[in-house]
Amino acid sequence: MNDRETSVAALREEIGAFVKERDWEQFHNPKNLSMAIAIEAAELMEHFQWLETGPSREVRLSPDDLQQVREELADILAFTLSFANALDIDITTAFREKMIKNAKKYPAAEFQGKFRR
Question: For the domain bounded by 3-90, which CATH number is listed?
Fold first, then answer.
């Protein structure tokens, strides 16, 4: 199954079942999960640490490098989904509300092609 065929709810249920089968709920509190997300994000950054912009985009051309990056991204997502489960956060609602704030904060006409005012 791919992104088009899988809902966020299905992914949350899958990671929830995985955690429950291992009795890991005791460890999956917001503090630990927020730290795990940051740690996994740092592991993802490690793959790009000394690369210039162009070569960083070429990682996708190396099956081994791309697989390692995919696994780090999957770890981040797994912990993010577990975090949402731990605090009962609806990810889609949170995302859409934040995008509305971002659209107001960074109007397209003002920020087209730039990241600062």
Answer: 1.10.287.1080
Q: What element of type H or E holds 83?
A: helix 63-87
CA–CA distance, 43 with 63 (Å, rounded to integer):
18
Please give the C-alpha separations between residue 31 and each of 26, 38, 43, 83, in angstroms, as whole numbers: 12, 11, 19, 9
Q: In terms of Cα–Cα distance, which of 16, 78, 10, 13 is closest to 41?
A: 78
Are the beta carbons of 69 and 12 closer than 8 angstroms?
no
Quick check: 73 and 44 in contact, CB under 8 A?
Answer: yes
All structural domains of the chain with their residue ranges = 3-90
The series of mean pLDDT values per 10 residues for the chain, 117 residues long, is 96 98 97 98 97 96 97 98 98 98 95 86
Whether the model clears a pTM of 0.85, i.e. scores above it, the answer is yes
